[in-house]
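Data card: per-record layout.
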Amino acid sequence: MNPQTTLPPTPAATPPKTAKSGAAHRRGGRRSEVRLFANLGHVALAVWAVIVIVPILWTFLASFKNTTEIFSSPWTLPAELRFENYARAWNKANVGRYFLNSVIVVTFSTFGTMLLGSMAAYVLARYKFWGNRAIYYLFVSGLAFPVFLALVPLFFVVKNLGLLDTHTGVVLVYIAYSLPFTVFFLAAFFKTLPASVAEAGMIDGCSHTRLFFQVMLPMAKPGLISVGIFNIIGQWGQYQLPLVLLSNAKEKWVLTQGIADISVNAGYEADWSGLFAALTIAIIPMIVVYAIFQRQIQSGLTSGAVK
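The structure for this 307-residue chain is written out next.
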């Protein structure tokens, strides 16, 4: 028998670069780009937070100081908590009355905006009829219309209706200017709701009105809360419209007008601590509202994209 010859082992060849390794390299490059943009985003958010938080914190601290402390040591803590600044602003500067007026106006205008806006958005989103898109784009075009361009004709329209220097006139104007954003936001939200639920309701004998109020509107609760909070914040801080529509009725002024009046008088009476106390009174309710409904706002903004 011939002895078997044993061949020497061949050295392992270096595996060539494949498409898989190239894809892994590209994924690594994308991850590094994502990390870079994420870090830049965090830096931008940190800068924005400082820009927003520092003035609010400074205003809050200044509301407990006297005028001498505000100008001599603006960046230090107050020597003592002077709650009399809030009492003086609330009573002497009539901030209490202006605060109540703002609550009344914003409550009725937000309710009217949400009722009319949700109804219009639902019809435009769920029903097909001639002129649907034209009406929708007409609503949306209101987002691009600056408020100051309509102040003069708006003044005469409200005056001719006999609603000048009344809260009713301000409420109606607030509703009109809040509807474009409300319809734009809720129409997109109503489109994400399942059509099977609406069909089941119609089969069970629901009318269109009952279907909207008892079935579809509760399902749109996250979106309603989100756009409602945005409307409250926007209407609470409105200044131009009440300045024009309530110019001759000081007892009906809203909070922004009262604070502006305090700031003008502060130049003569030097009651800067009362001014900052009034500003704090105006700011805190909006911060509390946003803090309470923060989760609902985030849910309403993201649910349309998830569904």
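Known properties of this structure: The chain has a mean pLDDT of 84. Residues 92 and 289 are 27 Å apart (CA to CA).

See the next section for split statistics.
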